[in-house]
Amino acid sequence: MSDLTAFEITKRWPPANSEVIQLYSYPTPNGVKASIVLEELGLDYEPHLVTLSDADVKSDAFLSLNPNNKIPAIIDPDGPDGQPIGLFESGAILIYLAEKAGKLLGDTPEQKYKAIQWVMFQMGGVGPMFGQLGFFVKFAGSEIEDPRPRERYIAEAKRLLAVLDKELEGKDWIVGPFTIADIALAPWLAALDFYGAEDLVGWSDLKNVPAYVERFNARPAAAKGKGIPAPK
């Protein structure tokens, strides 16, 4: 059995099988990237539910693996050179797991770097901007009377959606073949419905993005991964 006791997080969330990848997550748009990619790659893993409460994500145990107190995070007992490795940041996890399995990075070196490019687009643009939009539409920010913050994120979400809609013209997936870029993007696009923001960003006027999300959600790995770990 692999020895993961050097990772403090395992004392609070002990592994049942220390030979497989340990996933610490919650089913948010960022969290499900990790579970979906694990399902798509067919890698064995064990999910641990880490709620978004301070008691979990700001606990000493979780901070020992991710000092930035955000899900998801993983421990791979069979990391580089056969040694265990802990990782946080969903984009880094996507790239690491795809490279480990030798899948979901396109069919050519060019497609690999295009896939990574669109992962960065999601990490630097779509995720932060859509997350702020959700805050000002569905959550506490909706109580702020000043319309400017809300309008700013609506406008930026529209711009980002236009970029994606144009890129998807004539393609099923953002790079061509299905890659980690789609796993990064689609859960955040689907979040617009959860936020109740689709009408605000002109979702029905988009030509390619809505069908793209439907194709993604129809994938068995996506359908399964979206509920892992199951919230209590």
UniProtKB/TrEMBL annotation:
Top-level enzyme category: oxidoreductase
UniProt cross-references to Pfam families, sorted A to Z: GST_C_2 (PF13410), GST_N (PF02798)
Signal peptide limits: none
Keyword presence, Oxidoreductase: yes
InterPro entries given in the database record: Glutathione-S-Trfase_C-like, Glutathione-S-Trfase_C_sf, Glutathione_S-Trfase, Glutathione_S-Trfase_N, Thioredoxin-like_sf
Domain GST N-terminal residues, every copy: 18-105
Sorted UniProt keywords: Oxidoreductase
Domain GST C-terminal: 108-232
The organism's place on the tree of life at top rank: Bacteria
Keyword Oxidoreductase among UniProt keywords: yes
EC number: 1.8.4.-
Gene3D superfamilies reported for this sequence: 1.20.1050.10, Glutaredoxin (3.40.30.10)
Gene Ontology MF terms: oxidoreductase activity
Name used for this protein in its record: Disulfide-bond oxidoreductase YfcG
